[in-house]
Design a protein that fits this description.
Strand order of the largest sheet: 1-2-3-5-4
Largest sheet: 5 strands, mixed
Order of helices and strands: HHHEEHHHHHEEEHEEE
Structural class: alpha/beta
Strand content: 15-25%
Shape: globular
Distance between the termini: 43 Å
Number of strands: 8
Radius of gyration: 19 Å
Number of domains: 2
């Protein structure tokens, strides 16, 4: 880890300064982004859908199920505890942090057929996330037998310019009570409709 940091920063002092700045901005009371961290939900389950920033894995599913059995929100509680204790590296590289950064790569915390089956048994049939930086609008995949609505669209003006896309970028994904999912995006002509 130290070697990777030294590639980005020119000294250990610069690394320490960056870490101190991050703690002051994100973790310290009154930091510019501390309210964001205090109120951010790691995941949300609504009907048959599991919403999170990047993806899900078996360890997070097991923790969520434990909370369901105990009538608590164990997943969110552990997330808040990790932030409050400042254990950022273990959080980021652990199964909870993976909910904010996974892209279902070989080295990410895995979602296996067993984890998917646990979600299905709980009535969840769809995963909803972003974090994949698509320039073709929202995408639909199947992951271990679950529908995966990848709702990320490219909105960053610099990235759009690099990709040769017109600015501004936008995307809207609607989950209707009827089970219909409608995806609209500046980067895909027309509506994409899915019916569960």
């Amino acid at each position: 880890m130290q070697q990777a940091c030294l590639k980005l920063f020119n000294s250990e002092q610069a690394i320490n300064q960056a870490c101190s700045w991050a703690v002051a901005q994100f973790l310290a009371p009154g930091g510019e982004f501390s309210d964001l961290i205090d109120t951010w939900q790691l995941h949300w389950v609504a009907g048959p859908y599991w919403f999170c920033h990047a993806g899900v894995n078996d360890a997070a599913i097991a923790l969520w199920q434990t909370g369901q059995q105990q009538n608590t929100n164990a997943l969110e509680q552990q997330y808040q505890q990790a932030w409050q204790h400042g254990d950022l590296f273990n959080f980021y590289y652990g199964p909870l942090g993976a909910l904010t950064r996974t892209k279902y790569r070989k080295y990410d915390w895995p979602l296996t057929a067993q984890g998917a089956q646990q979600l299905k048994a709980a009535g969840i049939v769809g995963l909803v996330n972003g974090h994949r930086d698509s320039v073709q609008g929202q995408q639909l995949y199947v992951r271990q037998g679950l529908w995966n609505f990848d709702c990320d669209t490219q909105m960053n003006s610099h990235c759009r310019a690099r990709e040769g896309l017109a600015h501004p970028g936008w995307g809207i994904t609607l989950f209707e009570p009827s089970g219909e999912v409608v995806a609209l995006s500046s980067d895909h002509s027309g509506r994409r409709c899915f019916q569960l």
